[in-house]
Amino acid sequence: MKNFSGTKLIAALFSATVAALLVASCASTPVEKPHALRTNQLLDDDVVPVELSYLGKTPGEQEKIVRTFEQQPPLIPHKVEGMRIDFKLNKCLGCHDRPNYQKEEAPKIGDSHYKDRDGKELNHISMGRYNCNQCHVPQVDAPPLVANTFTSAKQ
Ligand code: HEC
Ligand code: HEC
After folding, report:
1. pLDDT tens, 57-96?
2. Helix, strand, coil proportions of the chain in percent (round to 5)?
């Protein structure tokens, strides 16, 4: 019985302290507004984002983009408009696949793309890599949405 009321007392003291701390912190620190990427208010009409044009010209005319971290899927330096990827056709393979890259003078697809998920060698590209744009993306010249201090590991 004695023990029980002791626990209760401690609990009461604890919640009183927490409450006091909460009141104190509310009073001293100004409440910071949440910083969202959208610039307009939630209930306003949506603003159409500025359309940015993609960098790069016909493949074969530009430098590769320097990679900034290990295992980074390289960024696509050329334009990709009209390059279809669907069930029947994959335009990217037409230049980058093993049988074609030399003739097209395109960088060869990495060997990792010709293995299944158990690491077994395949004589064709793994279907897990078929949808190139899932990992490789073209570039626009846009300012970062949020300022950051990222530098690549090698620097
Ligand atoms: C007409 C041939 C051609 C087609 C089609 C093509 N590419 Fe390329 N790609 C190139 C060439 C050539 C380069 C080398 C850079 C340059 O000169 O544009 C390149 C560079 C790249 C790179 C950079 C590789 C590195 O190591 O930095 C990636 C990634 C890439 N392409 C992905 C794609 C994807 C994804 C598609 C389909 C949406 C595609 N390419 C379609 C020819 C092609
Ligand atoms: C699941 C993500 C993923 C998909 C899908 C994918 N790639 Fe990659 N790719 C990577 C990564 C990661 C690298 C860099 C490491 C490596 O080579 O495995 C890479 C490397 C490359 C390279 C450079 C190879 C080298 O030796 O420097 C080319 C070219 C490339 N990919 C083209 C393609 C094309 C074309 C497709 C579609 C047919 C494709 N990739 C699909 C992730 C992917």
Report:
1. 999 999 999 999 989 999 999 999 999 999 999 999 999 9
2. 30, 5, 65
pTM of the complete model = 0.81
Q: Are 57 and 79 in contact (CB under 8 A)?
A: yes
Using a 10 angstrom Cβ sphere, with 0-12 exposed, 13-18 middle and 19 or more buried, the burial of residue 46 is: exposed
**Domains of the chain listed by start with CATH number:** 57-141 (1.10.1130.10)
**Is the Cβ atom of 78 under 6 angstroms away from ligand 1?**
yes
Q: Which amino acid is at 139?
A: Q
Separation between Cα atoms, residue 105 and residue 108, nearest integer Å: 9
Residue 107 Cβ contacting ligand 2 at under 6 Å: yes
Going from the C-alpha of 111 to that of each of 63, 74, 124, the distances in angstroms are 22, 14, 11
The CA 106 to ligand 1 mean position distance, Å, reads 6
Give the number of the ligand closest to the Cα of residue 94: 1
